[in-house]
UniProtKB/TrEMBL annotation:
The keyword Transmembrane helix applies. It comes from Circinella minor. PROSITE patterns: PTR2_1, PTR2_2. The keyword NAD does not apply. GO terms for molecular function: dipeptide transmembrane transporter activity. Its main location: membrane. This is Uncharacterized protein.
Amino acid sequence: MSEKIEKEEVTSGSIVETSKDIDVKEVTEQEEERIAPTEEDWKNLREVADNIPFSAFLVILIEFCERFTYYGCSGLFQNYVQHPAPPSYPAEQPGAIGKGQQTATALGTFFQFWAYVTPVLAAIISDQYLGKYKTILLSSLIYVVGLIVLVCTSIPSAIESGAAFPGYVVAIILIGAGTGGIKGNVSPLVAEQYQSKAPFVRTLKNGTRVIVTPQATYQQMFNMFYWGINVGGLSAIATTSMEKNIGFWSAYLLPLCMFIVGIIVVVSGRKRYVEAPPRGSVILEASKVIKLWFKTRNFDECKPSALTKSQPEIMAKVTWDDVFVDELRRALKACTVFCWFPIFWLCYQQMTNNLISQASTMLTGNVPNDIIQNINPFSLIVIIPIMDRVFYPLLRRFGFPMRPILRISIGFVFVAIAMGYSAGIQSMIYRSAPYYEDVTGKVNWISAAYQIPSYVFIGIGEVFSSITGLEYSYKKAPQSMKAIVMSLFLFSNCIASILAFALVSVSEDPKVMWLYGGISIAAFICAILIWVIHGKGDEVDVEEDAIARDQGEMEEYYKKIGKDISTDKEKQDQN
């Protein structure tokens, strides 16, 4: 018999399922009785996503403004540091500091490293003390100071006086801290706007029965979130043109103006966001459970229900409950998947340094060499809606909801293809006239359009692996540790930067071809190992995601640790 979950009033909305005979199906405008799907329902009904809350779109807008700023600035860093300032503008080759490719790649890699270390610290501050909204606001203020420093030290007089290099170093430290604080909290904040945790059967207006699942909903939300990121990433089209025709100061000023708009959005939407209240003891609590696990080697024996019988003397110090132990076990399991992602991000990072330098040795016409990297966000803007509205719904319609581990493995295959292809292009450059292998600082007669597939393949890899990584880390994290676990996923990018540091010595001609080939092979091997080692996790994905507390349990839990969630509940009701 079906289990009744709850009754909720459903507002008018729509679920988009693209196929030959279905376009848009409106949900019935009536009080909906949420019924848990039976085994028969799972066999015969297709999975669909639920309606996305308005507050989630507001958070996506915040991320769009921040990514517009981030990519608009960072996309220029390689040229800014590598090449000297031109005598006048428009310039054939934009530059400012003139430190060479290795220094530019090293500093760019440090920036990537720093930007993905800071989310962990920001997440701890968020989950334990300030909450996500306040942490995002504080990080925004740090970010804007860094942008002001960058703009002021990139004006021609500052470059001539030698202020550009120290100003750049200070700026990337501040911007990296700011972006880390925002990035570590904005992705869990967007997911928190959707509150349903269990699948249920819904009857559409035309009488069709479907299963609405959190898995499909989060998948759609993070697809939309990532789409917003890449729309913002197109800012580099404007800024790379401005650096070539006007100068770097103008190219950095545009992102600063957009970021101010982002701060306005953050402040204006403060009363609409749903967010879990911070937990002051979450790290300490998790460490106590893990310490107990090392003694018992069994998470079930770390639950208060078991400790009451086995170790009653320590119960006075126990502040967690049984559900927290299950959540922590699930989160730690998810974190093992993240260990493979440094290789993925190592491939991805080539877009912001070595592939830009590769383009500088190719024919680019009248456009700057670093504008080609915008093929990546442009391809994602096209691919993500196709995947979200056609590919994934079609698979679900035929009873094959592609689960997270399979998607992640496929993504690794695509970035491996991208790097293998890049190695092939580098080989073509070395075999082209007029300079052949001696291409350092010179241009051979081969079109930079050959690079386009590299950026497209990386984009497809992101759709399968990066978006899924965000979704997976949110779903598997305990309610009180969402930002921390998602930041650990982002931290894998930091490990990739460390690997990139180790490879700086081969980030030059003619060694760079072997760099591309080596990391291509590594990514492909990782794809196989991920599926072999973690593939069985897809079989229990839905069951694991069902681990959650109802509202009564949440209130009792937070009361136990001295927290009040009534304000958060009021915001949830308003949304």
